[in-house]
Amino acid sequence: MNFLHFMVQNRQQVLELTWEHLWLVGVSTVLAVLVGIPLGIMISRWPRWNKPVLAVANIIQVIPSLALFGFLLPVPWLGARVDRLAILALTLCALLPIIRNTYTGIRGVDPAVVEAGRGMGLTDRQLLFRVELPLALSVILSGVRVAVVISVGLATIAAAIGAGGLGEFIYRGLAMVNNDLILAGAVPAAILALSADMSLGWLERRLRPR
Hints:
The chain is mainly α. Helix content is 82%, strand content 0%. The longest helix has 35 residues, at 11-45. The protein is elongated, with a radius of gyration of 20 Å.
């Protein structure tokens, strides 16, 4: 009851921090999609780049997120604006599932379908946009779904460098040993992650080739 009372009393601040959280996650996810999908397409076309690209993405993924924020802080243009820094860090952490699923989805397209497209006179570009990407879309969206859920969780750590978001409640609650404050940050973040997972999962099933 104390938690609910706190949420009602501070609903304006909860909404503001939730919006900040959504903004960080939304912008970083869009950037990760704009970078990750072309990289996934590239390594599906030129397999020699497969290991280097995935290795770099894996290394970024295993770096502790708080350490990644720390590594980026001294960068002049980024360090001057913590929101830029947080968005870059979240974008880097979201790349791996998008790159890997794009590659897997394109490579998983039935070769007979690709050959049929070639037999109809489609160019490589037309094959990519008219055949391979539409058939791989549900697999790619699955990677985006994982990336969004990861970003929602990691965005709470952005509060440690002053980037805002629901993590502010969590860090403030830890400092004050106040469970209500911790729950005020953790519960909305969990709801956001579950909502994103369910909605993108529904969309993924709808786009799955029949």
